[in-house]
Amino acid sequence: MKVLTPEESMYTCVRCGACRGVCPTLNITGREADGPRGRVLLARSVLEGEIPVNQEIKEQLDRCLLCSACVDACPMDVQVPDIVMVAKEQIAAATEMNSFHERSVKIDTSQNDIKRTAKPVRNVKDFFFDKVLGDQKNLNKVGNLLWMYQKSGLQKVTRAVGIMKFFPEQMQQMERIMPEILPPSKRKHHPEFTPRANDTKETRGRVAFFQGCIMDVMFRETNDNSIKLLSKAGFDVVTPQTQVCCGALHHHSGKTDKAIELAKANIAAFENANVDYIITNAGGCGAALVEYEEFFRDNPSWLARAKKFSEKIRDISEIVVEKGELPELAGRGERVTYQPSCHLQYVMKVKDAPAKLVKKVPNAEYVDLPEKKYCCGSAGIYNMLQPELANEILDKKMEKVKETDSAVLITANPGCFLQMKLGVHREGMDSVIETKHVVDYLVESIERAEAKTPS
Amino acid sequence: MTETMARPPLDKKIISKLEEIFGEERVLTRNTDMITYSYDASFETQLNPRKPEVAVIALSTEEVSQCVKLANEHNVPIYPRGAATGQTGGAVSTKGGIVIDLSKMNRILDIDHRNMQVIIEPGVVQNDLNEALKPYGLRFPPDPGSANMCTVGGMVSNNSSGLRAVKYGVTRHYVLGMEVVLPTGDIIVTGGAKSKALKSVSGYDLAHLMIGSEGTLGIVTRLRLKLLPLPVTRGIILCSFKQLEDAGAAVNAVFSSGLQPSAIEIMDFNCTKAVNMMKPELNLPVDNEAILVFEVDGAKEEVTSQVARLKKVVETYASYIKFSDEPEECEKLWQARKLVGAAVGLLKPGGFRVYGGEDICVPISRLPETLREIHNIADRYGIVCGIYGHVGDGNLHTGPVVNSNNEVEMENVQKMIDDIHDLAIKMEGTTTAEHGVGIVRAKYMDVEHGPAMDIMRAIKRTLDPNNILNPGKMALPN
């Protein structure tokens, strides 16, 4: 667990500036207010009631990607994203209620627009977070709708009719790069238990697979491949059916109650699985899961359970590098680069495991992506909420990707995957650069090797 | 917020003119922006932030020149700012006006490796520069602790240095020439306008007048820097001493044995404790008054022999020695020193480390008594502090740790800072060795310089008759 609460943590910032070099938004605009140091001070000013809550401060704090690169760079581990979140929660509450909390958050009535825009946005968010993400059945229904949309010819029709033109540019582009949804028949529950592929060898461990919510609908194949990869690397894999969404998006949007509810459900689901490790294939989810303890600071019985749960969380690349044994791999002469997931590298502190695995593929060349320290701009749904800044971040990222002259761009998180795919699409390079989750890349390499040497 | 507006508020027309120069997007006037430009890394600006009236983000010499010209014509103060990692308030406003942010002028323009020099813009971050130079086997040696985030322009303006100054000197030793926007807006190049020479004694050395002038005489917009080859390898010797005096004697013995370490760092008992708290696995010896960490560098065989010789010299004085010339082990030993700046913050739960009285420099011979005296001062005010520093040149960094909500402590730590500065002068030292004067040490300028201050003020008046460039700093005319 983190030693300090966000409020305590913000007072340990000495403004040394160690965070300046890793902040993606500061890198774009150069404005101090777009850097971590500025954000901590602005959040603090809001929480202390030094400045009133108004549209200006809201807009400013909304520009933070919450990528955590600054926390990783900070010698004092100042929890910038948590601090920004606390301030955002207070702003949200103050806008809806006028008066708020024991603290003296002041509403600035000279800027009325903050109140007018708050409600409808919040209603849509409520529906999305509570009714869709929080409920796997509903999420599956959305998945079915998407599949129908893609398969029924409706996608072709809408594209031909040009109806997407009426949506914001960001949505139009997202619609185009959406992964193909598998039909409902192929999205049944994962098997509760998948044994290691080679049972003549000793097991590398009993692990549970965390499937995620969006991940399991939109990236079902990557999830299938994850279980396959774990099994092929020597693990016995349990996939508990009672697991739910990790709650990261709820938490990041200030819906802490729902996030806690989901956390409890997951802790209970995985306790029953009786495993050594719990494996995620999405840096964003993994980062949320390792921080479950934070929800239960004042709840000793749950805190102990959360602690046990969090200690078992491993990223799939990390566990395969540390405990697994990969079968033979084969490349096809491609050059490969890797854009890390921020939550994976900065919160889970898994810095180079995906790259290490990619480097193991023979007949493929791994090149480091310059400035891979910077977030790609996906950051949950940031690219929807801050399209302009997100696009600038993305354009800069794509410049660097092009410099590597790679044919495969590896990611380790669904948000990053979509963002990178969007970037490739915007550059008109869909036929030149393939965006892939590291798991899919490895399974393909394994299967390529298997095809060459039939057993 | 400290509102030090001794002047009428900025005319709206000036904002529009700035927008003409920079474009609307790079002219910032919103309250949220002003708050974030009200501080640097100094304790002083944490206590008393100082908002400017407008901040501009410059991208070219031409923009800087036009902006300064405008400010000079209308008598508006203008404050150059890099990454604002300074600890003196040097990069913040003292009476409203314009902060000019130079951190986006960060292009490396020409790595002229055959001539062992590089031309850059001032906003380049020290570490980024060295990363770019690595493929050429070259480096820009000055190494302040903030190398990860400080701009080279800021380093030049403060004549910064770091722990390897004992062998490689300070920023001043690596500046060959620069382009400067003068307080009138005129642009000059010093160190020979077209020269690429590595040495020159032609004329007054104006570049060196600018170095360390903290943005009071001109705004640096381009730099020509001398480079050195990268050292091939290094060795580390970490040793601990029962008595401070033993550590002092060991340093003397090393120097007189003909060895030239690239760094000699000292950490007192509190620093040792703090590092052990942060990284228990380092398991530093605690039963002592000080730890010294020596670094030697050079070719592999040279380093091996230096490590052996150095070990032999310090053995007489030290109670514990660990050493290595293997990169991985060196990295481990060096961690103790690397972490100390942040670790001292742990000396008090929930406390934060105050940067104040943090940069004094005393004669090496007086280090032990200075260290003891600093702890006496701290005890007197009931404040916990760790002391570390570059013992090879007598530069001590004191890190008091306080809780910001404890008013008595906050008051006492400020008294303690004053006492440390007074002590430095009493010990025939200086109040600042590498961080600068800015706002926080201006009051010691007359004591340290005597009548020489008149000359400094005369130079300032000559170059900046309207006193628009970074006024209120270094005890220059106000």
TrEMBL record, chain A:
Reactions catalysed according to its record: (R)-lactate + A = pyruvate + AH2; glycolate + A = glyoxylate + AH2
Pfam families in UniProt: CCG, Fer4_8
InterPro entries in UniProt: 4Fe4S_Fe-S-bd, 4Fe4S_Fe_S_CS, Cys_rich_dom, Glc_ox_4Fe-4S, Helical_ferredxn
Domain 4Fe-4S ferredoxin-type: 4-33, 55-84
Gene3D superfamilies: Alpha-helical ferredoxin
Superkingdom, taxonomy of origin: Bacteria
Cofactor binding note: Binds 2 [4Fe-4S] clusters.
Cofactors that this protein relies on: [4Fe-4S] cluster
UniProt keyword terms in alphabetical order: 4Fe-4S, Electron transport, Iron, Iron-sulfur, Metal-binding, Repeat, Transport
EC top class named in words: oxidoreductase
EC number(s) stated in the UniProt entry for this protein: 1.1.99.14
Function: Component of a complex that catalyzes the oxidation of glycolate to glyoxylate.
Name the record gives this protein: Glycolate oxidase iron-sulfur subunit
Native source organism of the sequence: Mesobacillus maritimus
TrEMBL record, chain B:
Domain of life per record: Bacteria
Enzyme Commission number: 1.1.2.4
Class of enzymatic activity (EC top level): oxidoreductase
Keyword Flavoprotein: yes
Classification via InterPro entries: FAD-bd_oxidored_4_C (IPR004113), FAD-bd_PCMH (IPR016166), FAD-bd_PCMH-like_sf (IPR036318), FAD-bd_PCMH_sub2 (IPR016169), FAD-linked_Oxase-like_C (IPR016164), Oxid_FAD_bind_N (IPR006094), Vanillyl_alc_oxidase_C-sub2 (IPR016171)
FAD-binding PCMH-type domain boundaries: 47-230
Cofactor(s) the protein requires to work: FAD
SUPFAM superfamilies named in the record: FAD-binding/transporter-associated domain-like (SSF56176), FAD-linked oxidases, C-terminal domain (SSF55103)
Keywords in alphabetical order: FAD, Flavoprotein, Oxidoreductase, Transit peptide
Record PANTHER family: D-LACTATE DEHYDROGENASE, D-LACTATE DEHYDROGENASE, MITOCHONDRIAL-RELATED
Family: Belongs to the FAD-binding oxidoreductase/transferase type 4 family.
The name this protein goes by in its record: D-lactate dehydrogenase (cytochrome)
Source species: Mesobacillus maritimus
Higher taxonomy: Bacteria, Bacillati, Bacillota, Bacilli, Bacillales
